[in-house]
Amino acid sequence: MKAMILAAGRGERMRPLTDTCPKPLLKAGGEPLIGWHLRRLKAAGIEDIVINHAWLGSQIEDTLGTGAAYGVRITYSPEGEKGLETAGGIATALPLLGSEPFLVVNGDVLTDIDFQTAIHYAQALAQQQKLAHLWLVPNPAHNPNGDFILQQNGLIASDNAAGSALTFSGTGVYHPDLFRDTPPHQAAKLAPLLRQAMQQGLVSGEQHNGLWLDVGTVERLAEADKIAQNWLKQP
Q1: Where do the H-state alpha helices sit in 25-76?
Q2: Are the beta carbons of 149 and 160 closer than 8 angstroms?
Q3: pLDDT digits (tens, 9 = 90+) for 42-55
Q4: Contact of 75 with 82, CB cutoff 8 Å
Q5: Which InterPro entries does the entry link to (predicted)?
């Protein structure tokens, strides 16, 4: 199975730190944020990884190289300085990701989502002819209204009238067919594609109640650093 780490964001709210360093390379516990993903993917047995990049993307390639230091194999999908939004970035990287379902993770979060379960969900998507499986998390203070509804049947809906919305973690397993009509090398958002698939009953999901931190501010970067420092102290 392959995974894609989204690393093309500009990180406006993290300026001035991101004026000279791409957000996924900001450090928590002495390790780049994206490095924690690489370690967890390797531990889960997912070793073929695609990373997209835009702003200061050459720094990402220079820092991570082939991925050998993490025991993985990295292929890069450069997008130019402005980036292509999430769906545009994934559609552009499809030739690198192949024809089977793949895992996608936001590069600027710190989480303990079990990536090994993504292998199971990838197989389930192919067998059940669904297009996506998403991890949702309890709503953080910066997103109090949530994004999507996790229904009792395990499917996800976008209609808030259906229940209490949870926040999309930015982690999901996707079938390539979700992006079939999304042209490569053009900016496109992911949410409209997901909502359309939800209306057709083609998106499943689950709630993750463990660690999930969107490192979108300097304050949350300090929080991530404390968490990662504790990880380093564990035997």
Answers
A1: 33-43, 57-64
A2: yes
A3: 999 999 999 999 98
A4: no
A5: GlmU-like, MurU, NTP_transferase_dom, Nucleotide-diphossugar_trans
